[in-house]
Amino acid sequence: MATPLRHFYFLFLIFSVAVADYLKLPLLHTSPHPPTSSEALAADERRISALIKRPHPQLPVISAASSGSGQYLVAVHLGTPPQRLLLVADTGSDLTWVSCSPCQHCNPRAAEFSPRISDSFSPYHCYDSKCKMVPHTDKPPHCNRTRLHSSCRYEYTYSDGSATRGLFSHETMTFSTSAGKLERFRGLSFGCGFWNDGPSVSGPSFKGASGVLGLGRGPISFSSQLGGVFGHKFSYCLLDYTLSPPPTSYLLIGGGAANGTAVPAAKLSYTHLLKNPLSPTFYYVEIVSVFINDWKLRISPSVWAIDELGNGGTVLDSGTTLTYLAEPAYRKIISKFQRLIGSAAQPSSGFDLCLNRTSSDDASLPRVRFMLAGGSEFAPPPRNYFIDTPEGVTCLALRPVASASGFSIIGNLMQQGFTFEFDKERGRVGFTRSGCGYP
Question: Is 362 a catalytic residue?
Answer without folding.
Answer: no
